[in-house]
Amino acid sequence: MILHLDRQPHDAVAAIDSSGHILKYSELLSFSEEINSLLPERSLLFLLTENNVGGIAWSIGSINSGNVPLILNAHTEQGLYHNLFDLYRPAFLCVPSSQVATFTYETVMERYGYTLLRTGMDTCPLYEELSHLLPTSGSTGSPKLVRHKYSNIEAAALNISTFFGLTEADRPLLVLPLYYTMGLSVVFSHLYVGATILITNLSMTDRNFWDFMKGQRATSFTGVPYSFEILNLMRFFRMDLPDLTLLTQGGGKMPRQLNLKFAEYCRDHGKRWIATYGQSEGTARMSYLPPEWAISKCGSIGQAVPNAELSLIDSDGSIIDTANTEGEMCYCGKNVTMGYARRREDLLLGDERNGFMRTGDLAYRDEDGCYYIVGRMGRFLKLYGMRIGLDECEQIIKGKYPIECACVGTDEKMTVYLTDEKYVNLAREELVEKTKLVASAFDVKIIDAIPKNEAGKILYSKLKS
Fold first, then answer.
1. pLDDT one-digit tens code per residue, 334-389
2. Torsions phi, psi for 265 (to 5 deg)
3. Pick from 202, 227, 192, 216: which is nearest to 52 by CA?
4. Are residues 364 and 399 in the same domain?
């Protein structure tokens, strides 16, 4: 039984969505048992979710029943979906019932607005501790999945509920998607303490969103930098929200002035502003900046979450003990996931990390032990809270058009270099379609030639200069 679900009062409400649907803890338990009775033990299923009560019921119910879901966006681009399906060949597929007509598989059951389908694929052996799978690179098409185990869920729920001080009285507003590691972590941590999750897929610019938030007396809001940019434009600072006591941010670096604006607002209105840092490979949250430092250390990712440790290593792999010295940031904790899957056979692999991971982020630590990220060692960005692989974006363009390209950038914007002007708009449109990001996230530039070395590898440093 994950997250001590059986210890919660059975009549307590686990989740409410903006369509008025309610899920009780007792219903979540009985639904887990129903899934267990209908699916062969340890089945792999693709779970295409939306932000509603059904999405929570199926995500948690599938994991709690001992089956292994790959949690995906219900509106995943078709090319990506078919690529993943062909590679992993799940025995079952669960989709919103409104989408069932697009599939020809046998129906097993329909519950909470979702329909479980049998694909006809053979079951595959799964590692005994494998709990669920999440994609690594947003919607760019990578078949690489993060392999989570049951103890990762428990550790993340304990760590997060501890440093946020969560209780059964909390009512978090969940706008981040369930297939996004931080969105799922909100579910884990709040179910762990018996709270009620308020989940919605409404746009923050929709009046109904605010009616739901106020009517259900939401106590906390978790967002990525883009979420807070929208709140800023919505005149959030003028709103009367007495029930809202916690604002928490993750999903990439936030512009300093906007970060400071929210921190000062929370200080002046008796609320808490807590910036966090994490990766899917660390089951979401790995560090947090205590609210008392939100202003004085604005821009820091803070310290490791409870029961975990951050450290820095130099290029030789030696530990850096001195303050204000840059190195690669490493993380140690029970929420570190087992590794990646790149094919179906990898779902049988055990734990390849053993609680330790190199984050790929370049950082330094100040005299108080707070960490500051200064760059990224890997070839990926976090745009609007979504991790986007630069190499994968290059392949998206080159796979569609007969051109050379190179992608670099920061967490603010991706710069795409092309050698043919007629593909500028086409390349941008293709990236928008595949990543589901706004067009302004991509700055397309034309150069005479992509700089390469003698081996034909792109010289990205010359592009950046």
1. 999 999 999 999 999 999 999 999 998 889 999 999 999 987 677 788 888 887 88
2. -60, -45
3. 202
4. no
Average pLDDT for 36-57:
96
Same domain, yes or no: 296 and 416: no
Number of residues assigned to the chain:
465
In 250-346 the beta strands, taken as DSSP E runs, fall at 272-279, 284-288, 303-304, 308-313, 327-333, 339-341
Domain that holds residue 412: 380-464
Here the CATH number for the domain that contains residue 428 is 3.30.300.30
Q: Strand 386-389 to strand 246-249: parallel, antiparallel, or no bridges (unpaired)?
A: unpaired
Distance CA 115, CA 120 (A): 16
State which of 320, 348, 375 marks the end of a domain: 375
Look at the chain and report how many structural domains it folds into: 2
Q: Which of 144, 151, 148 is nearest to 133 (CA)?
A: 148
Report the 10 Å Cβ neighbour count for 452. 13
Cα angle 47-51-55, degrees, rounded to a multiple of 5: 40
- % of the chain exceeding 90 in pLDDT: 82
Do residues 272 and 333 share a domain?
Answer: yes
- Residues in CB range of 91: below 8 A, 6 or more apart: 40, 43, 44, 45, 118, 119, 121, 122, 123, 124
162 and 228 together in one domain: yes
What pTM did the predictor assign? 0.85
Q: Residue 87 is inside which H or E element, if any? A: helix 78-88
Q: What sign results for the dihedral spanned by CA atoms 116, 118, 119, 122?
A: positive
Which are the contacts of 121, defined by CB distance < 8 A and separation ≥ 6?
89, 90, 91
Question: What are the pLDDT digits (tens) for 67-92?
Answer: 999 999 999 888 889 999 999 999 99
Tell me, yes or no, whether 244 and 384 share the same domain. Answer: no
